[in-house]
## 1
Amino acid sequence: MGKILYTDHLVREKVKELAQQITERYRGERLLVIGVLKGAWIFMADLVRFMDMELFCDFVRVASYGKGTESTGEVCLLYWPDLDFRGERVLVVDDIADTGLTLKFLRKKFLNEGAKSVEFCVLLDKPSRRKVDFIPDYVGFTIPDRFVVGYGMDFNEQYRNLPNIEIYEG
Ligand code: IMP
Ligand code: MG
């Protein structure tokens, strides 16, 4: 495929670091870890296995309308967990913070559902792409405006199974 940006080994070390930061932050508290499908599933599976604490896992699925590598402004919920979020601490896990539209939308949604706190953990952050004000709380790697695939991330549903994170070169 494309040029390797981060090897699976490097990703694993970074995921372990993120898990340690989060575990220290929430030690002794109950945490709902919510992955954003589909891009986050591999990252989340690895992340929670490095978190030695009481936690519960579920997922949301959203679609931001758009084609190819561009998203438009609208966010639509395709799956929402059957959970009571009132008074809960929520950690949203996603593969990439790009325009920030999805994650900003989710922050509002979880707070509307009564969550006590909402934080965001993303493996990759592309701050130069932001269209709305959004700053993730835990970031693996900050990257330039390049389209990447692998480790759960796709281009038109392909390449999610690549173990390394690669730059998509068409
Ligand atoms: P946004 O922050 O609302 O624009 O949504 C970001 C979502 O678009 C991410 O969670 C990814 O699923 C997807 N995305 C953004 N950039 C990339 C990329 O470089 N590769 C694969 N998916 C991406
Ligand atoms: Mg995503």
Note: The longest helix spans residues 8-26.
## 2
Amino acid sequence: MSTPWRFPDYDAHEILHFVHDQASGLRAIIAIHSTHLGPAAGGARFWHYAKDEDAITDALRLSRGMSYKNAMAGLPLGGGKSVILADDARTKTPELLAAFGRAVDSLGGRYVTAEDVGMSVKDMIEVNRQTKYVAGLPVEGGEVGGDPGPHTSLGVFLGLKAAVRYKLGKDSVAGLHIALQGAGSVASGVALHAAAEGAKLSIADIDPAKVNKLADITGGKVVETSDILGLEADVFSPNALGGIFDAATIAALRVPIIAGGANNQLATPDDGARLHARGILYAPDYVINAGGIINVCTEYLGDGDERLVRERVEGIPTRLEHIWAESETSGRDPAAVADAMAQRLIGRG
Ligand code: NAD
């Protein structure tokens, strides 16, 4: 499709807001992809980009991803994302965060920010001094909020179980071999749920302390990071990096199922079709890893409690089953099916 802008990732984004605050040195881009379902929600990333064009590409892609993720999670929110361009010293001063907060506020609630890579809860407290359009703030007793990681892990585990049911006809992961990439926040939660149900785990992480600790707690086996992708197992669960599936890695896979929480797992859309052609059942990343955003959004909207968060997270398996069923009927791969469903939900199908 031709686009009116010469950015390959421009996809009828509603707003691309360039910010420069001379006094603090802030340079940021706020991208609003769609507000069709509600205010555009998505985190702020603090990152050092080699070229300004890379920051624009990141903002365009990530904000579209948030539109899809929020829509598929059934949330009354659109998709947006912001990137703050770190300088060589990567300094994040209170003045810079304040200027970013004012920029978010200037959009009048059309964009709601939260933490992403390089931004902490502490940073969000600074941003919140300038604008109310912030989520991911610390919670007080009994309120919904706080670390989204455990909610993401629960959604990934429930989605993984749904994949096992769909592909292997089993109601439990007991006795199954799960290969986990990553031993961080999301992976740890998935590993604990799976171990509690009796799964056999192989785990790899570039951080030896983390992987050893997680293997100790779960009775799992530590595997070299270079071996985890080609391991023979019942499920491969990627919970570390994006862009891991390409023609070469897909050819080396020895699993019938991929179900993990890492964002942007497919290097290109063709890789969804490659997995499908190999008969590997894929759980689209932005559908299975929506538990965290469900928690963050319920916090921001103030429309529910822990019970509602849990109910919304428990909806993830049903959505995945729907995608796999449509994939079986249409012959299209699950990633393509999910994209088409998300586009319909945001009024662009
Ligand atoms: P984290 O930083 O806690 O964990 C990531 C882990 O991956 C770290 O332990 C790191 O050492 C490891 N890692 C990095 N490179 C690796 C490699 N080459 N091989 C093996 N391990 C490697 O992050 P997280 O919050 O657990 O997030 C994990 C993934 O899930 C990311 O892709 C993130 O974008 C995605 N995600 C997270 C959430 C959330 O709520 N935290 C929500 C949605 C998606």
Note: The mean pLDDT is 94.
